[in-house]
Amino acid sequence: MDSILFPVLLTLKISFLSTFFVFFIGIFISYILAKVEFRGRNILEIIVTLPMVLPPTVLGYLLALQLGKNGIIGSLFYKLTGSGILFTWEAGVIASFIVSLPLMVKTTTAAISAVDKELEHVSYTLGNTKLGTALLITLPLSKKGIIAGMVLSFARSVGEFGATLMVAGNMPGKTNTMSLSIYQAFQTGQYDLANVLVITLILMSFLSIYVTGKMADKLNS
């Protein structure tokens, strides 16, 4: 039973944490891309989008370099905690965050860009600052895109495999997420376990998409 329960719980923990960070950082980046004109905007958009097109091995390798003790993130984590971050579940959170962030940014940027600029202009004439207008007008009117981006990012985190394998490893009882456990079960001929995990993963992904559709219908009604 633990061979099923642990991967499910770990996957949910990693996915929820990843989505939490994706929500705030994704909205911040999306607002900048949608509303702020600056030199290097296209470069930022390309950097955020790259994880969607890079092979998982390349992305995992680049992450491993940064999460090692000589990397920027790894060295900072080591100074704060006294231990490394590679081959831990925390590294899995970072990998899931990186691969799911583009979905949040793409969806939310489109939603923010679609907000009627006249409504924002009225808010400015009433004395609201840019921050106040963003919080009171722009983001609430973009909520459908934000919710869709969150759910899609969560679903992407649930199914993450390649980058997680390289930075978190596949250690039973420590870093074996559902996708990694399915791979391990297939490799070792444990097809019954693989079938249960596959069905569970499909149901979780299906539920995420179903929830997105229901939320969209409720917001449109």
From TrEMBL:
<feature type="transmembrane region" description="Helical">
    <location>
        <begin position="84"/>
        <end position="105"/>
    </location>
</feature>
<feature type="transmembrane region" description="Helical">
    <location>
        <begin position="193"/>
        <end position="213"/>
    </location>
</feature>
<keyword id="KW-1133">Transmembrane helix</keyword>
<keyword id="KW-0812">Transmembrane</keyword>
<dbReference type="Pfam" id="PF00528">
    <property type="entry name" value="BPD_transp_1"/>
</dbReference>
<protein>
    <submittedName>
        <fullName>Molybdate transport system permease protein</fullName>
    </submittedName>
</protein>
<keyword id="KW-0472">Membrane</keyword>
<feature type="transmembrane region" description="Helical">
    <location>
        <begin position="46"/>
        <end position="64"/>
    </location>
</feature>
<keyword id="KW-1003">Cell membrane</keyword>
<feature type="domain" description="ABC transmembrane type-1">
    <location>
        <begin position="8"/>
        <end position="212"/>
    </location>
</feature>
<feature type="transmembrane region" description="Helical">
    <location>
        <begin position="12"/>
        <end position="34"/>
    </location>
</feature>
<keyword id="KW-0500">Molybdenum</keyword>
<keyword id="KW-0813">Transport</keyword>
<dbReference type="InterPro" id="IPR011867">
    <property type="entry name" value="ModB_ABC"/>
</dbReference>
<dbReference type="InterPro" id="IPR000515">
    <property type="entry name" value="MetI-like"/>
</dbReference>
<comment type="similarity">
    <text>Belongs to the binding-protein-dependent transport system permease family.</text>
</comment>
<dbReference type="GO" id="GO:0015098">
    <property type="term" value="F:molybdate ion transmembrane transporter activity"/>
</dbReference>
<dbReference type="InterPro" id="IPR035906">
    <property type="entry name" value="MetI-like_sf"/>
</dbReference>
<dbReference type="GO" id="GO:0005886">
    <property type="term" value="C:plasma membrane"/>
</dbReference>
